[in-house]
Amino acid sequence: MAPLGRNGKPVGLDAQYVGRLPCSTCGIRSMKLPGQQGGLCIPCYAEECAAEGRRAATAGAWVTASFVGDPCLACGSQSVDANGWAFWCNSCDMQTAVALPPR
């Protein structure tokens, strides 16, 4: 999860970093979405969410659904993008917010 705001919800990345700095996990692709330890590329964000889901399921807790992936989990297209707090597919128009917009 990303850093939390006052209301306990994750806060997105500042636009000045999105697409400019490297992913804090792989260092290969550019950061697009907030992760636990910094900005993540879309594939690393999807893996972090999957790992959190596995841990929650193992503990018998509710698992939050994540629709973020490359390729798109809805249509399989690789035409996906994110802006620091929202993710979308350019082919099927699926969109999801993963955090609150930064101030």
How is this structure best described in words?
With 103 residues, the protein is α+β, with helices and mostly antiparallel strands. It is built from one helix and five strands. The strands form two sheets. Strands 3-4-5 form a three-stranded antiparallel beta sheet, with no helix packed on it. The radius of gyration is 13 Å and the shape is globular. The model has no long low-confidence stretch (mean pLDDT 92).
Question: SSE string, helix = H, strand = E?
Answer: EEHEEE
Residue runs with pLDDT of under 50 for 5 or more positions: none
Mean pLDDT: 92
Cα shape: globular
Radius of gyration: 13 Å
Helix content: 10-25%
Distance between the terminal alpha carbons, to the nearest Å?
Answer: 18 Å
Count every helix, treating DSSP H or I runs of 4 or more residues as helices: 1
